Amino acid sequence: MPPPKDVVKIAIQMVGAIPQLIELQQTKPLASVLKDVCDAWSLPNAERYALQYVDGRQTYITESNRGEIKNGSILRLTTSPDQEAERLYSGIQSNNSDVKTDSLKKLASLSQDVTFAQEFISRNGLKQIFHIVEEGNDTGEMLAHTLKAFMELMEHDFVSWETLSAAFIKKIVSYVNMNAVDASVQQLSLSILENMVPTSRLLFELVKKEVTLDRLLTHLQVTNAQLQLKAMALLIALLLAATDAERRDMMEYLREKNIRQFIHKNIIHSSEPLGDEMAHYLYVLQSVSLNLCERRMRTSMDPYSQEQRELLQSLRQTAFEPESETPASNFSTERRRSLCAKEFRKLGFMNNSNPAEDLRRAPPGLLALDNMVYFSRHTPSAYSRFVLENSSREDKHECPFARSSIQLTLILCEILHIGEPCSETAQAFYPMFFGQDHFFEELFCVCIQLVNKTWKEMRATQEDFDKVLQVVREQITRTLFLKPTSLELFKTRVNALNYSEILKLRQTERLHQEETLAVPVLELRERLKPELLQLIQQQRLLHLCEGTLFRKISSRRRQDKLWYCRLSPNHKVLHYGDVEEGVHSPPIESLPEKIPVADMKMLLVGKECLHVKEKSSGKQNKDILELAFSVVYDVEEYCLNFIAPTRYEFCLWTDGLNVLLGKEMTSERTQTDLDVLLSMELKLRLLDLENISIPDTPPPLPKPPSNLNFCYDFSHTEQ
């Protein structure tokens, strides 16, 4: 029978005594439990004792936390928190340095417990700790224990950080600024200052004034990883507590001191693995730095601002004026305005007569303009190539630079979470951020060229704009996920991830999501293929039996006559003949010409067809090549020539003719239809296995039992 829920079985230890195994009744007052335990060991004054966990943080047991005691817990009978607090309060005032050091060491350990901390603070213990720090000149082990005890006591929030005296704070600051100080003392001092900074504006200003950024940078350059970590923690605390203007000035100063390069070389690429805490601080530093772009991102363009108008005009001048022999200033006002509007249209602005309107949307606001200007000034050849290359394309195929830049800036802001508050737990920083000055602008320069490359790969038109930018977003996020260590490596990887690769990855992920890449599913897929291919063949032959209306193409490429072709219901004869305009499905008897399927020799497609081999160039000829096919028949090898009305009809007819010739269907439509049918069939067959993982290998068959002998033994002759 299980014990009642309010009873737990525990062991209680005491130095020099045999442990007790008791059943602790949670409804019984703790004072009564202690009296019973003390009576069992013949100890008087039970009120001077308390129970404490043996393992972990060695927390004291109180009425408020006794419910956390589990079956099998091991507790220790020890001095009560008030008695221990009184003893240590006296011990830290001792003139004997050994007693004082031991008391401070024990104090640092016990101060983690909230019950003890409350007792010690109620005796004005913090005042004594302040005295040790303010008056003492020791910088060794005793001071380290003192600072550790202070940190633990302050963690419980019984006392406000704002109550600290100026003398105490200056002493802590001096430990950070001194060189010949024990590393553990400096670590604890940095931690104390880090905790002080967020509590009040006054403390922030005091610490910012006394502990310079140069001093923090010095601590970041030491080989001691813990000291490095605490210095980074204080730097982050200062940045987060600063105003926007102060933060901007601090980040500018750190940039001048090349903190990014130092972090990239000595922290990210150090021989020691990067801890979670340091990873979080690097994420915050990256986030704070990128959020400096927020002000420009949320500011719309002011059409009356001379500075902003000059930046806008510089884009046009950099792209077009060098190639113009006559400066625009020589033209009349109307002519100059018309020329500028034309050039802004070539730059890809939607509102070419007033391009400032395109930048009124915030975000991305002026940040998009800054990126475009940076690209034009720092990579002028790439900028000119982008603009001029698209200016010379057909209107519908040109990639609009300005529109793409504005949307790309918005995408980068979303990916990099610009304008969003820092997460308290995130660790997702990008190593290449710390290896590159002007990271956001340089990243934009790489990505805007990627937009142009992807646009060409997709053969996009203006209607495909959103689709192209969606692919670009995917290219960027997938590459950033790989955490490239430098911008050059990012550039190499993102350019290698072209449009066709994105399509392959999407397909693979979709198949994985549907569990269609599991080995048993792949085997089932292969078994289903022949049956489904046969189904596709039947559909193709049925389509040929229904027939299709074709146009005859003359030598001048004029589509002037119509003819109809269809397969007989028994699949043995092709019937064809001329028809009048408006006739869609003539009866088979009205088609005079015939070709027995048995006489068909081969199928020719595209450039192999004689009727499209004439020397000609141009888009129309290319389109006809993609739709042309011929049937070679009879001993004399005559040809029946076709120009399919659509690519869909081309696929169905070439597949159907290949089936009649006993060959494989080779059109892209066959693969598409097969994939659709396989997907549907697999989903139906796996319907009952939803949310059940399918193993790659079948489970092993158990060995047959030793008594498996169902066969009658005829060797024994019946008596």
TrEMBL record:
Key words, A-Z: Apoptosis, Phagocytosis, SH3-binding
Gene Ontology biological process: actin filament organization; apoptotic process; cell motility; phagocytosis
Q: Which residues form the ELMO domain?
A: 307-480
KW Ribosomal protein (keyword) present: no
Whether NAD counts among this entry's keywords is no
Q: Where is the signal peptide?
A: none
GO MF entries:
SH3 domain binding
Q: What does this protein do?
A: Involved in cytoskeletal rearrangements required for phagocytosis of apoptotic cells and cell motility. Acts in association with DOCK1 and CRK. Was initially proposed to be required in complex with DOCK1 to activate Rac Rho small GTPases. May enhance the guanine nucleotide exchange factor (GEF) activity of DOCK1.
Supply the name of the protein.
ELMO3 protein
- Annotated organism of origin: Podargus strigoides (Tawny frogmouth)
